[in-house]
Amino acid sequence: MSLLLVCVAGGLGAIARFTVDGLICRHRRGALPLGTLVINIGGSFLLGLVTGLAVRHAGFPAAVESAVGTGFCGGFTTFSTASVDVLSLWEADGPRPGITYAVLTLAGSVLGAALGWWAGSIG
Description:
- This is Fluoride-specific ion channel FluC.
- By secondary structure, the chain is mainly α.
- It is 86% helix and 0% strand.
- It starts with a helix and ends with a helix.
């Protein structure tokens, strides 16, 4: 049953990624791929939140942790797209935009995860 939940949640995460990226790209054109950045930071926050809840609150359902953490967040976030975005920026505009985007992605995702973990650990 847990495997089925992870698979369904992963599919929903992928659909959510496609939808969020489409909405952001439709409303904004710019140098940096903002959709992927927002998705990875938001997904990191959600994974941190679920992890914080699971660690802090005994009895947090393992099925929920697996479905949301591994499934949804795994389908939603996208390291491979972020990596290609870095290389594309580097090739098109030189190293500075690529490095900037890489740093923003890494720092933002770690900060998002930390904030989510903290929020899940409250109480």
